[in-house]
Specification:
Blueprint lengths: L11 H13 L12 H8 L3 H13 L3 E3 L5 E3 L21 E2 L14 H10 L13 H12 L8 E4 L2 H12 L5 E6 L3 H9 L3 E8 L2 E2 L1 H9 L2 E7 L12 H11 L6 E5 L19 E7 L1 H4 L6 E5 L1 H12 L7 H12 L1 H27 L11 E5 L3 H10 L2 E2 L1 E2 L10 E5 L8 H12 L10
Parallel strand pairs: 3-13, 5-6, 5-8, 8-9, 9-10
Antiparallel strand pairs: 1-2, 4-11, 6-7, 10-11, 12-15, 14-15
Helix pairs in contact: 1-3, 2-3, 6-11, 13-15, 14-15
Length: 446
């Protein structure tokens, strides 16, 4: 813990508020250790039970995490805005940033012409009672999902994939419930689960998706929900294969005690076929975002599922935000219908495929096994993430440390390919080779 910050308080509520204040003011930084329960209790002249309650409340809200002998620490990305550290600091001057996990802005469709056309045709303002999912949008979404084998009789919208996943989890689960998630998995999703007070159970995966034995073990351990990334898994690029989908469907068939959530966030950008699990369980949902192919500012996702699940999500939305903007719906519908936009999305998908495959193949030539079957990222196992990140920075590169995405899986780096060019491949691969297996320093001799 930072020497500059002193936890105060005489009750569990006051102690937890003091620690939260330290996080909010950035005097307690992400990853900072907190004192052991008994040590802090002695320092504050309170009982250990009082400190334990404070820590338990902070853990349930996702602000801190306890990791066995490593003690209790501030979470890497706690769900509270810090006044000085709310924004991720920019990389140092001269570094090539391969850490962001974002699409190439040059390959996103221009929104201006579609917004201009929309302005001429949108008509009068709608009323609160008329707002909701536009029938023409819902029909177009159903057709697009049906083309990929996803049943979409029941359908609603959310403000992006993570918003949809949050609504699904909060309508079916309660704090303390267990959720089976991919390990390594999407950092934002892991943060969300912590913030909701849910308990993650890591499921190992390979290039074909979550391992069946891992899913079975998570369910046996009490998981009430299972989240699967259909393809372009973040961070590994895994995509559920036809054989893996069949095995998972057989395992999950007819279960009424597990909510199945599928995340197809890359959608049109994924250069592998979709093998959905939709309908395998009694309660399920398939979430497809438009942000990766069409632009991060388009906060809209289509959510299909069984009647009860969709009704719960739609009902909860109605008493909260109400609906996803009909202006956004009309804009996305216009993009879907434009052949030039479709061609640009195809070009973007081909570009990401070429860059990702180029990096994986070039690493393989140097004896390194990296993962990147689909999507925007390559996952490279390394011996030590800190050392590997330092080697990269010294050579002018910035990658995301695997710790952001891991529960119990081994160390690795996530490299986003969207900023790479062909001439980058060989110098980057040379550096990654050094980073993955650094040469130990020479031994001192007497």
């Amino acid at each position: 813990m930072s020497a500059r910050y002193q936890v105060t308080g005489a009750t569990a509520a006051e102690i937890s508020a003091s620690i939260e204040s330290g996080i909010r003011h950035a005097t307690l930084a992400p990853g900072d250790p907190l004192p052991p329960v008994r040590a802090l209790a002695a320092e504050l002249a309170v009982s250990p039970a009082t400190v334990s309650r404070a820590y338990a409340e902070l853990r349930q809200r996702g602000l801190i995490v306890t990791a066995g002998r490593h003690g209790t620490r501030v979470r890497p990305r706690p769900p509270v805005a810090a006044r000085r550290a709310a924004l991720r600091p920019p990389p140092a001057a001269g570094l090539r940033d391969l850490s962001r996990g974002e699409p190439d802005a040059r390959l996103l469709p221009p929104l201006g012409p579609h917004l201009a056309a929309l302005a001429d045709t949108i008509g009068p303002a709608i009323s609160y009672s008329d707002a909701g999912t536009l029938p023409e949008f819902a029909e177009a979404a159903r057709q697009r999902l049906a083309a990929d084998g996803v049943p979409a009789t029941e359908l609603t919208l959310s403000s992006g994939a993570l918003d949809g996943i949050e609504r699904l989890l909060t309508t079916w689960l309660r704090p303390g419930d267990a959720v089976a998630v991919e390990d390594p998995g999407w950092a934002n999703q892991l943060d969300l689960i912590a913030a909701l007070g849910l308990r993650p159970i890591g499921v190992p995966l390979d290039d074909d998706g979550p391992l069946v034995a891992g899913v079975a073990a998570a369910i046996a351990a009490g998981a009430r929900a299972l989240i699967v990334t259909s393809r372009a898994q973040n961070p590994t690029g895994a995509a559920v294969s036809a054989e893996r989908a069949a095995d998972l469907r057989a395992l999950l068939a007819g279960r009424a005690d597990v909510l199945l959530i599928e995340d197809d966030h890359a959608a049109e950008l994924a250069r592998v076929p979709l093998h959905p699990l939709a309908g395998a369980t009694a309660h399920w949902a398939f979430v497809r975002s438009v942000s990766k192919p069409f632009g991060p500012d388009l906060r809209l996702a289509v959510l299909a599922g069984d009647e009860t699940t969709v009704a719960r999500v739609a009902g909860r939305t109605r008493v909260g935000t109400g609906w996803v903007s009909t202006v956004a719906q009309r804009l996305v519908l216009s993009l879907w219908r434009d052949p030039a936009v479709t061609a640009l999305i195809e070009q973007a998908a081909d570009s990401y495929e070429r860059r990702r495959r180029g990096l994986v193949d070039t690493l393989a030539e140097r004896g390194l096994t990296a993962h990147g079957r689909s999507g925007l990222n390559v996952w490279l196992p390394v011996t030590d993430e800190t050392v590997a990140s330092t080697v990269l920075r010294d050579a002018g590169w910035l990658a995301a440390p695997g710790a952001l995405f891991r529960i119990a899986s081994p160390p690795a780096l996530r490299i986003t390919v969207t900023a790479l060019t062909d001439p980058d491949l060989h110098p980057l691969t040379h550096t990654l080779t050094q980073a993955a297996h650094p040469t130990p320093p020479p031994h001192f001799t007497a």
